[in-house]
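TA notes, week 10

Several of you asked for a full example with nothing omitted. So below is the full record: structure tokens for the whole chain, then the designed sequence directly under it. When grading your own attempts, check the secondary structure regions first.
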């Protein structure tokens, strides 16, 4: 029997890249046209975000938290339990984690904790960039990396763009919300390792977004007295 140190990540991968991306194709066909609804809800967040009134900021943060909570719950049920659990036994455990993240977001919305900064400042611009990449960039990766468009990963439907969108909102919040980052960061590490093992060209994307979110939230903590 080989010693444990002789194993690599690929020895623990229970599926091929073809099987992995096939799950998104099956999911997209199964839930269509839910992708249109998910993208419309995603676009509602920056539409409110760009309002200049203070009241707009309050409502934008609350609505963003509610939309994100719905997205995390949908991904937990439709993808992680409905498809990913068929090829990986961790699917049900990650589904529970995604459901927990949804509860944390609902709590933040109920308490009106998630106030968004102005999109024009540094934190706001970084959050907008991450959110835009999640909403628009992720589906385009399918074309960039020559995968069938039917395998596109869409915000609110697939986990990676949903997690990145959440990173963008938390990065743009007026105050640090580390409790909203724990589960997204765990998924970023897991998904990044999975994609790296499959030699996917976008393997570093989600871990890089996680690193940026950590830097932004940590920096926000230092500047807290100046945040209004």
């Amino acid at each position: 029997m080989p010693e444990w140190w002789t194993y690599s990540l690929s020895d623990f991968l229970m599926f091929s890249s073809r099987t992995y991306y096939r799950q998104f194709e099956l999911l997209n066909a199964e839930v269509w046209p839910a992708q249109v609804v998910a993208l419309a809800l995603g676009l509602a967040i920056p539409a409110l975000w760009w309002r200049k009134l203070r009241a707009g900021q309050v409502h934008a943060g609350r609505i963003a938290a509610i939309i994100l909570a719905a997205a995390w719950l949908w991904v937990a049920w439709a993808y992680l339990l409905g498809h990913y659990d068929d090829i990986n036994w961790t699917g049900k455990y990650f589904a529970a984690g995604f459901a927990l993240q949804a509860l944390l977001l609902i709590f933040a919305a109920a308490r009106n904790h998630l106030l968004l900064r102005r999109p024009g400042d540094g934190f706001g611009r970084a959050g907008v960039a991450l959110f835009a990449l999640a909403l628009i960039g992720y589906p385009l990766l399918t074309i960039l990396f020559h995968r069938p468009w039917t395998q596109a990963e869409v915000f609110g439907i697939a986990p990676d763009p949903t997690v990145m969108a959440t990173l963008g909102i938390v990065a743009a919040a007026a105050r640090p919300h580390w409790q909203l980052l724990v589960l997204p960061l765990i998924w970023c590490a897991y998904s990044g390792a999975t994609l790296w093992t499959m030699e996917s060209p976008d393997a570093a994307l989600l871990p890089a977004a996680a690193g940026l979110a950590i830097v932004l939230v940590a920096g926000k903590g230092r500047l807290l007295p100046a945040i209004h």
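Helices lie at 17-31, 34-49, 54-87, 91-110, 122-144, 159-171, 182-197, 205-222. Use that as a sanity check on your answer.
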